[in-house]
Automatic annotation (TrEMBL):
It is a peripheral membrane protein. This is Disease resistance protein. GO terms for molecular function: ADP binding; ATP binding. Residues 542-812 form the Disease resistance R13L4/SHOC-2-like LRR domain. Residues 154-321 form the NB-ARC domain. PANTHER family: AAA+ ATPASE DOMAIN-CONTAINING PROTEIN, DISEASE RESISTANCE PROTEIN RP. It is found in: Cytoplasm; Membrane.
Length: 951
């Protein structure tokens, strides 16, 4: 594994040298190209050299590639110095290194070629399986499948929706890999469960749990709290969660809990509402299960029956294809030795899915059979290790990289792929194909059941993924044996830190003792990850000048609020992610940087900083991400031609004032763009969006206004004028803006628009403020996904052919919308309607549309309702009398000046007290008498100021 990764990484370095504009001698560039070709020829050998006889040679290849790359990059660092004498000396040294490397590789190739023929002869004369299913089709149909347990599902579903009004805990217990989490996921996503509970949430506890992280996860993902949470102490977060759950029927999955102490830490978060709320808990320890669910008995998770095991194996190994009869006997032997453990079955089947011959299957069967006398845990670990050993060489490094991340966490696929690219873990196949190749590798790992896809975008693209705990343990063991990864485990001392690890990851708080260790500890380090995500600030210096060859630096979870000294000297750096910073960024020397992200942890904040003018010389830059930043226009290179960042793929956080014709010509190949700022930023650049026409390759655009409550500037200018939209735009997101429906007509003219998202939106029908959206006759011909979030929309009408391709509609917190276009009942494409925080009237109307479709024989459409609210009514008298004082059910409503009464009777009732304070007192008194305010907070909005009081 490490040999393949080392070779591909060296190839990437040679490619950069051959393409670099640095002052290399011409002979060195020619040697670099020659070495690139020589090294590339090694990959073919390594792809077919996974047997035991080749391990020594693989290690030799790895050590040689790593040594050559270290020496080459060390000289490149010297060539970047301004001293001409140093440059000349480094060039001469580099030529000798390259020439010697070419000789060494020729020698290794001779040794590699000897066992290669013997190994290949084993593949002759075997029965072959049919062609493999494409990765994309397989991953969409096979992942996260739940086979068997139909009786158990019915039983648990009955307990979750049972008649007991008390809060109950249903515990599921069983060994790792038996399918507890998959079972829980099946339960929480079941349509009958979705419709029964107002709130559904999921937290993963694991051994090294973080109470704070779990609290924030529930508040953001399950409750939908958008306020800043990272500054609040844990007790305030817990109090906020309790209040948010008060009075609501909730289902929370507490996954993979390891101790009674952990349960005691979190059980207090969940209030007893006497409304049939439930906790679904999974654990490997029966004692914990009994304690948590007492007096109810825990639910012991069983292994799969033989027939269920075979069905799961066939699903993972063959997909939808019929299996050849000659493979059935050996397949059933393998399944029998997995003892009904779903993880073992899935992983070994995933491994076999890419093996085409009967001999290969028999070899795996013999290996699995050799583990039959071990206990369940040892046998499971052994089977997982076998599956890893049978992975193709090009997948092994990508798989082991999951050990860098913390256990039991969801991993951003976008970030994972950028890290793989920065580390050089896969072969370079054209600069524009890097992301595509990386996604293909991820799909391969999912097909082999080594990685699980979690969240997806509407079009099926994987957004997050995770790795099972047992497989994560395997990553740590294998990367240890390969001398690849060091994961912090305090306390640290100079005697227990392995030397020369290429990946270093802090899963707990960064320990300053690590940075006081001798220099050899850092000499080979290529990546530093700080993943603790703690709200503290480091008070010691990282000493980055000692990490000369560092490629990846992830400071986001370190607590560092400034860019450390020595950063500008990391000339090999390709990936940089950090939290809050301000002022000037010392990145002008980072000519190899591919990815730059500067954000706060758990917060979206408009950080003000300037990128240096030298950014335009960073030719390798592919992704630039922040909340808000300023960059000057590109310099001219000749005539009217501007310097172009040819490799730049995505930009997020560009200030409006930067959105000039010159800027867009300098980033003309960008495919994703986010324009972000406050009202003043947009006010200072009123025509900035009209320049978007100069981005011909742009496919996704986001326009974000941060201070949406304090300005209606984007009420007038939320979108470009007619004819200024990029011609290839497929996705448009407007967040925090105000919008006229006439401007939606402009948007509807986009010929390729497939995704339209209105987030935190105020939607107005016309200039008079009428909240109606009448879709024009032109409609949205290509639109597949539509999201409307927040208030402002009361009426929505459309014609039969307004949305001919629409597949999914999501409506969030549109509290006054009672109906959606009834023409949806005739749609042949609509598959899903999601309603979040909407009224019962809207939910019932959507379900009527679903029933009409079913009558017509169309059973595709599904309607999901989450956190349905009580009906609200506008009170004309209240509005007339109060003038500038309005009583609101939530603080958010108070800020947005939404005026509601709890019942229709209240809305109709005449109010005689003309004093707004008297009105406030009388209205609250009525609420208290009726018992409506008990345990709740009432908020008052007075001339833009918001106050709250609990009653």
């Amino acid at each position: 594994m490490a040999a393949y990764a080392a070779v591909t990484s060296l190839m990437g370095t040679m490619h950069l040298i051959s393409q670099s504009s640095l002052d290399f001698q011409e002979s060195n560039k020619e040697c670099s190209k020659s070495l690139y070709d020589k090294v590339g020829s090694l990959l073919e050998f390594l792809d077919n050299s996974d047997n035991e006889l080749m391990k020594d040679l693989q290690k030799k290849v790895k050590d040689l590639a790593n040594e050559v790359e270290d020496e080459v990059e060390s000289q490149v660092v010297r060539i970047m110095e301004k001293d001409k004498h140093i440059q000349k000396e480094a060039n001469e040294r580099l030529r000798k290194i390259l020439e010697q490397a070419i000789e060494d590789i020729d020698s290794v190739k001779e040794e590699l070629s000897k066992p290669r023929n013997k190994n290949n002869n084993l593949l002759a004369g075997n029965c072959l399986l049919g062609g493999p299913t494409s990765p994309r089709s397989r991953v969409s149909t096979l992942e996260n499948g739940m086979v068997g347990h139909s009786d158990e599902q019915a039983r648990v579903q009955g307990e979750l929706t049972g008649s007991s009004s008390q809060l109950e805990v249903i515990s599921i217990a069983g060994m790792g890999g038996i399918g507890k989490s998959t079972f829980a996921k099946k339960m929480i996503s079941d349509p009958s469960i979705v419709g029964f509970f107002d709130v559904r949430g999921w937290i993963t506890v694991s051994k090294d749990y973080s109470l704070r992280k779990m609290l924030i996860s529930l508040l953001q993902d399950a409750i939908g709290v958008n306020e800043e949470l990272d500054k609040k102490p844990d007790d305030k977060l817990a109090d906020c969660l309790q209040k948010s759950l008060k009075g609501r029927r909730y289902l929370i999955v507490v996954d993979d809990i390891w101790s009674i102490e952990a349960w005691e830490d979190i059980r207090q978060w969940f209030p007893e509402n006497n409304n049939r709320s439930r906790i679904l808990l999974t654990t490997r320890i029966m004692e914990v299960a009994r304690y948590a669910s007492y007096p109810k008995n825990p639910f012991p998770m069983r292994v799969l029956h033989p027939e269920e095991s075979w069905n799961l194996f066939c699903q993972k190994a063959f997909g939808k294809n019929d299996y050849p009869v000659e493979f059935e006997n050996v397949g059933k032997v393998i399944v029998g030795n997995c003892n009904g453990l779903p993880l073992m079955i899935s992983v070994v089947a995933g491994s076999l899915s890419s093996k085409r011959t009967l001999d290969e299957w028999n070899e795996v069967a013999q290996s699995v059979s050799s583990l039959v006398n071990l206990d369940d845990y040892q046998r499971c670990s052994g089977v997982l290790a076998l599956s890893y050993n049978h992975l193709p060489s090009h997948l092994k490094a990508c798989f082991l990289y999951f050990g860098v991340f913390k256990k039991a966490t969801e991993i951003s696929v976008e970030n994972l792929i950028r890290l793989w690219m920065a580390e050089g873990l896969f072969k370079l196949r054209g600069i524009w194909e890097l992301e595509k190749e990386a996604y293909s590798l991820l799909h391969d790992l999912i097909d082999k059941s080594l990685i699980v896809a979690c969240k997806r975008s509407f079009d099926g693209k994987i957004k997050t993924c995770r790795i099972h705990d047992l497989l994560h343990d395997l990553c740590l063991r294998e990367s240890e044996s390969e001398s690849l990864l060091y994961v912090s485990n305090p306390p640290i001392s100079g005697t227990n830190v392995p030397q020369h690890r290429r990946w270093v990851s802090f899963h707990q708080e960064p320990v300053r003792d690590f940075f006081s260790l001798p220099f050899p500890t850092y000499g080979k380090t290529r990546s530093l990850h700080f993943l603790a995500v703690k709200p503290y600030s480091l008070e010691f210096e990282l000493g980055l000048d000692r990490f000369k060859l560092l490629r990846v630096l992830d400071l986001l979870g370190s607590g560092v609020w400034y860019l450390p000294n020595g950063l500008s000297n990391l000339v090999s750096l390709r990936y940089l992610r950090a939290g809050f910073i301000s002022g000037y960024l010392p990145i002008y020397k980072l000519q190899n940087l591919q990815f730059l992200s500067l954000r706060q942890v758990n917060k979206l904040q408009a950080i003000k900083f300037h990128l240096p003018d030298e950014t335009w010389k960073m030719s390798q830059l592919r992704h630039l991400d922040s909340a808000s930043f300023y960059l000057c226009s590109p310099p001219k290179v000749s005539g009217n031609r501007y310097r172009v960042l040819e490799n730049l793929q995505s930009v997020h956080g560009l200030r409006p004032i930067c959105c000039t014709k010159e800027m867009f010509k300098g980033i003309k190949k960008v495919k994703k763009l986010g324009i972000c700022g406050n009202s003043n930023h947009f006010y200072d650049a009123p025509k900035c969006l009209d320049n978007l026409i100069y981005l011909p390759e742009l496919e996704a655009l986001k326009i974000l206004l941060y201070d949406r409550y304090r300005s209606d500037f984007l009420h007038r200018h939320p979108v470009p004028c007619v004819g200024s939209f990029p011609p290839n735009l497929k996705k448009l997101t407007l967040q925090g803006t105000r919008l006229l429906w006439s401007q939606l007509t402009v948007i509807s003219k986009l010929p390729k628009l497939e995704v339209l998202q209105f987030k935190a939106l105020q939607l107005f029908g016309d200039e008079r403020g009428e909240t109606a959206w009448e879709v024009s006759e032109m409609g949205f011909p290509k639109l597949k996904f539509l999201l409307i979030e927040k208030k402002g929309l009361e009426y929505w009408t459309a014609t039969d052919d307004s949305f001919p391709c629409l597949e999914c509609v999501i409506i969030k917190k549109c509290r006054f919308l009672q109906e959606i276009p009834k023409e949806f009942a005739d749609s042949m494409t609509l598959k899903r309607i999601e309603l979040w925080g909407c009224t019962p009237s809207l939910v019932n109307f959507a379900k009527e549309i679903q029933e009409e479709q079913e009558i017509l024989g169309n059973n595709i459409l599904q309607v999901y309702a989450y956190d349905t609210i009580t009906e609200v009514y506008i009170c004309p008298t209240l509005l007339k009398i109060c003038a500038e004082v309005y009583i609101c059910p939530t603080e958010e409503d108070a800020k947005e000046e939404v005026y509601t009464c709890p019942t229709e009777e209240d809305a109709k009732e005449e109010v005689y007290d003309r004093s707004y304070f008297g009105l406030l007192k009388n209205w609250l008194r009525k609420m208290i008498v009726r018992g409506r305010c008990k345990g709740r907070s009432i908020y008052m909005s007075y001339r833009g100021r918001c106050k709250g009081r609990s009653w």
